Inverse folding.
């Protein structure tokens, strides 16, 4: 069986296993049957699209309280499509929660139904159209500029999104161990991405081993440090909100944090591992007589150049997402010691540094594995 057939069989096996696992996990319905049976009046909420026809009255929020809008809207999807409603849209002082609309705006509305009563309120702006255009521009540029490699990247991105949204998230919500599931999903994403992009060969295998090793090390460090310094895993606010899910789900918040660290580091670690494996492979192809020690040093030299920028990438990514938090903490006048010891800050420090450490150790691991594979292949000839 040639390499191409092995590659096809390998991909089919992985996809079959993944699809089978995804089908075995039921979707979360948002409310379990027991809760519904115990509730005399079943509470239902649905989200539909609507269009603002007219804003009849408006009062801006001021120091005395929130403002409001009298809005006429037409529902454009779902059971009530075509129906027109007049509703009051409350405008809180906090800009983060204020949804001020104008005639012609496309919006998302929430329809609360308790028995025969129905309440409608504006949930958010409808952003799908613009986001879909942005996605197609991104995918189109990948294919136009990357050509066949870009097309392969589109496939790997699609598989990654499928694994996260159809396997990982439903799996966690249905009681699977989030950390174990994240490690499994990360491994499958790594294998599929590298094999689809670079083929089934020793270079890909070295990159896969290096990536999985680096991610597992990052996860291990985050677990050890997180447990040592008593990180709760309840930060940011979204994690704390998980306590109020309608399902009777028992979540391990520390494991959720560690799972996020694994996935957050995966992309950068995979990039580093593939770069090192490819560099060593090209050097070996140019001079197959090169000694193992020299080949390893050449790979590490490439790794040294990558290390600084990629580690910086992770640090900047996590810091960039925390700018509002940093502004609040600096403006509050808290001491440096007090700030660093806050749960939310310690969490971000562990997140960024554990991922960076995983990235750094990936370089020598991938270099060693690549040299061993290439030299063992040469000795068998």
């Amino acid at each position: 069986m040639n390499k191409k057939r092995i590659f096809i069989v390998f991909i089919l096996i992985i996809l079959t296993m993944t699809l089978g696992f995804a089908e075995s996990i039921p979707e979360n319905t948002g409310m379990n049957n027991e809760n519904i049976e115990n509730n005399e009046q079943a509470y239902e909420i649905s989200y539909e699209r609507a269009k603002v026809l007219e804003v009849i009255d408006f009062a801006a929020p001021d120091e005395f309280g929130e403002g409001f809008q009298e809005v006429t809207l037409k529902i454009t999807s779902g059971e009530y499509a075509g129906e027109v409603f007049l509703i009051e849209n409350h405008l809180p002082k906090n800009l983060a929660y204020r949804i001020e609309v104008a005639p012609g705006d496309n919006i998302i509305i929430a329809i609360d139904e308790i028995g025969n009563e129905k309440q409608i309120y504006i949930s958010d702006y409808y952003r799908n159209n613009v986001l879909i255009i942005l996605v197609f521009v991104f995918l189109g540029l990948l294919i136009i500029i990357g050509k066949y490699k870009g097309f392969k990247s589109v496939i790997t991105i699609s598989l990654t999104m499928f694994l996260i949204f159809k396997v990982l998230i439903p799996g966690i919500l249905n009681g699977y161990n989030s950390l174990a599931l994240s490690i499994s999903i990360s491994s499958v994403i790594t294998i599929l991405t590298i094999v689809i992009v670079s083929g089934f060969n020793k270079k890909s295998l070295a990159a896969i081993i290096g990536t999985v090793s680096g991610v597992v090390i990052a996860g291990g460090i985050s677990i050890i440090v997180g447990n040592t310094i008593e990180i709760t895993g309840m930060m940011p606010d979204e994690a704390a909100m998980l306590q109020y899910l309608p399902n009777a789900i028992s979540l391990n918040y520390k494991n959720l944090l560690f799972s996020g660290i694994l996935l957050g580091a995966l992309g950068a670690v995979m990039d580093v591992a593939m770069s090192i494996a490819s560099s060593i492979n090209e050097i070996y192809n140019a001079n197959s007589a090169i000694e193992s020690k020299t080949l390893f040093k050449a790979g590490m030299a490439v790794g040294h150049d990558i290390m600084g920028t990629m580690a910086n990438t992770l640090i900047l990514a996590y810091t960039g997402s925390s700018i509002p938090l940093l502004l609040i903490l600096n403006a509050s006048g808290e001491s440096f010691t007090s700030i660093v010891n806050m749960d939310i800050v310690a969490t971000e420090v562990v997140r960024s540094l554990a991922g960076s450490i995983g990235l750094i150790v990936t370089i020598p691991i991938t270099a060693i594995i690549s040299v061993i594979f290439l030299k063992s292949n040469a000795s068998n000839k």
In short: The two ends are 19 Å apart (CA to CA).
